[in-house]
Amino acid sequence: MNKKIIIFLVVVSAFLLLSSPVSAKKNADIKIESEGAFIIIKLVDSQGHVIKSTGKIHYNITDQNGNYKWKYLSYSKLHAIKCDPGKYYVKVKFDGDSKYNSAEASKSVVVSYSKSSFDPYTYYDNHNWGVNQKMDDYLEYNYWDEDLYDDPRTYDGEGP
User: Exposed, middle or buried: residue 73 (CB in 10 Å: 0-12, 13-18, 19+)?
Assistant: First the structure.
């Protein structure tokens, strides 16, 4: 009889240990926004802070004519997709990682801008560095310095 009680207590203890909050993953939420010519996808924690993750995201963006683009890629801190003006339906799935649970979100967004309002090749020449952090992050992650500053006489960053 004592062996059964001891085995029962060991099983219950193991269950409690494995289901403790120490091993639980945090919840992630997906935020979908439009800003200028871009649809911005970002993961946030329960306090609304942007998180970094090595997990994979899937997104599907459908325009008002039924045309769509989709991607399956690794997430880092923020993902910006350049789109033409119009109304889009965005569906995003985050697979989760070792720290965060999976999440899904969908939202209709409107992208509206004048096509000539943004040029990544003159953005910093017009003294816009630091004006918009989302745009700075997009340019940093999607363009090489050589693309933005291909003329060494006007390049004002570090380099050879």
Answer: exposed
At residue 92 the predicted structure's pLDDT band, cuts being 50, 70 and 90, is very high
CA dihedral 140→145→146→149, nearest 10 degrees, is 110
> Does residue 122 register a pLDDT over 90?
no
3 state SS for 62-114:
EECCCCEEEEEEECCCCEEEECCCEEEEEEEEECCCCCECCEEEEEEEEECCC
Q: Residue 120: its pLDDT value, please?
A: 65
Instruction: Quote the tokens at residue 100.
Output: 């965060």
Q: Which residue is listed with tokens 């919840």?
A: 27
Query: How far apart are alpha carbons 101 and 41 in whole angstroms?
Result: 17
Q: Is residue 160 pLDDT above 50, yes or no?
A: no
Query: Residue 53: what residue type?
Result: S
Which residues are within 8 A (CB) of 46 and not within 5 positions of it... i.e. 6 or more apart?
26, 27, 29
